[in-house]
Amino acid sequence: MNTDNSSFERVEEFKYMETTLTNQNSIQEEIKSGLKLENACYHLVQNLLSSNLLSKNLKIKMYRAIILPIVLYGCETWLLTLREECGLRVFENRVLSRIIGPKRDEVTGEWRKLHNEELNDLYSSPTIVQIIKLRRMSWAGHVALMGDRRCIYRVLVGKPEGKRPLLRPRCKWEDTIKMDL
Domain residues of the chain, as ranges? Predict the structure, then answer.
């Protein structure tokens, strides 16, 4: 790809912001590795998250400060499929159910796990998918303000040469931003 006085070679993948970007817009492996890191971090602090000695507010602050930043590093460039969004929500609900704990049924007096809707009601902050969308929008605004002298802006608004394959076109980052709006 040539832009002004610069030329870029075509590569299969490259690292940007500790995120591996591929020519197929495939970030499944990146999300899987982020979830593996998050799982490892979660297992290190799970005893604290289920402890009765700490308040729920403190546990939620620990989740936001320790666990979330690990998985969300570089999420501004992600193009999430429904399967990946579901996997992120499953992980978040597992952590929140550990933090909030079971609830005693008022009628039967038995302990039960909270449903996902109940967890979301008790956890008043945005969900992990909403945070990713907000960060993506913030990054898009940052890139849009860069101006046409910056390479990243030209890559965002540029139209690559050549033909796309005949199959269903893959979702572009720009299309994801439009859907987020």
Answer: 12-180
